[in-house]
Specification:
single chain
């Protein structure tokens, strides 16, 4: 069922695609100076985060396939996409002459990584999908959409291609959770309480570097919460449940 997107999902993806295209063609926008030491210093950490994030995503989808073996082909395809993205973002850093700070990036993802591994060991598919296919993908989509507007030309082209793929990944987790909502809702809401606050902390941690790249922290958080809440609605949660889950972000 996951191998083919539903018509409504395709319509949503097309709408998202149009939104991306509109947002990446602003009438007037002051771009940062990509050659300064301060930009390259901040970029070394931001670039490392996206590279590590794509590697984590690859590993996570391979791991999820051990819990849903009948979805092996689809999950392997998603994982391969993430490695393609990693190569693209590695090229973005090389293009600017920046060495990614991978040690920083591994620490940046360490808590989410640890929570995913615990859920994996327990066989908690819902928690694994929430972390990777919902939280991390919504986080990536929102950050990439904001970044595209202020990126250097090379990175902009790479990121536009990546973000279109990420909607497919978000859709995978969304559809699985939607189909299994009657049995996974309680775990979904509990996992949200633990993991959604981590996204806010991660955004706070990288806010200064993002600002150097002309990415506003408030806009990043707003974009993320819109993407996240829209996904929860598509999964089938009602407004009250979504509001309760969103509150975990401001604890």
């Amino acid at each position: 069922m996951h191998n083919e997107l539903k018509i409504t999902d395709m319509q949503t993806l097309e709408t998202n695609k149009e939104t991306i295209e509109e947002s990446t063609n602003p009438i007037s926008l002051d771009l940062p100076d990509f050659t300064t030491d301060s930009y390259k210093d901040a970029y070394s950490r931001i670039n490392a985060i996206v590279i590590e994030g794509e590697q984590e995503a690859h590993d996570n989808y391979i791991s999820i396939a051990t819990l849903i073996p009948n979805e092996l082909e689809e999950l392997t395809k998603l994982a391969r996409m993430e490695m393609k993205h990693k190569k693209g973002f590695t090229a973005c850093g090389r293009n600017l002459g920046v060495v990614a700070d991978m040690e920083f990036a591994k620490k940046f993802f360490s808590k989410l990584h640890g929570n995913f591994q615990v859920a994996l060991e327990k066989g908690n598919i819902t928690t694994c999908l929430l972390i990777q296919a919902i939280l991390i993908e919504a986080f990536a989509i929102s950050a990439y959409n904001v970044y595209i507007r202020v990126a250097d030309p090379f990175a902009k082209k790479i990121t536009e291609g990546v973000v279109k793929d990420e909607y497919l990944h978000l859709n995978y987790g969304q559809e699985w959770l939607k189909e299994n909502l009657s049995t996974c809702k309680e775990e979904l809401m509990e996992a949200n309480k633990v993991n959604l606050p981590l996204i806010k902390k991660m955004l706070d941690e990288v806010a200064d570097d993002a600002s150097v790249l002309a990415m506003d922290r408030e806009e990043l958080m707003e974009e993320f919460m819109i993407a996240y809440q829209d996904t929860l609605m598509e999964i089938g949660l009602d407004n009250r449940e979504i509001a309760r889950m969103a509150m975990a972000a401001i604890v």
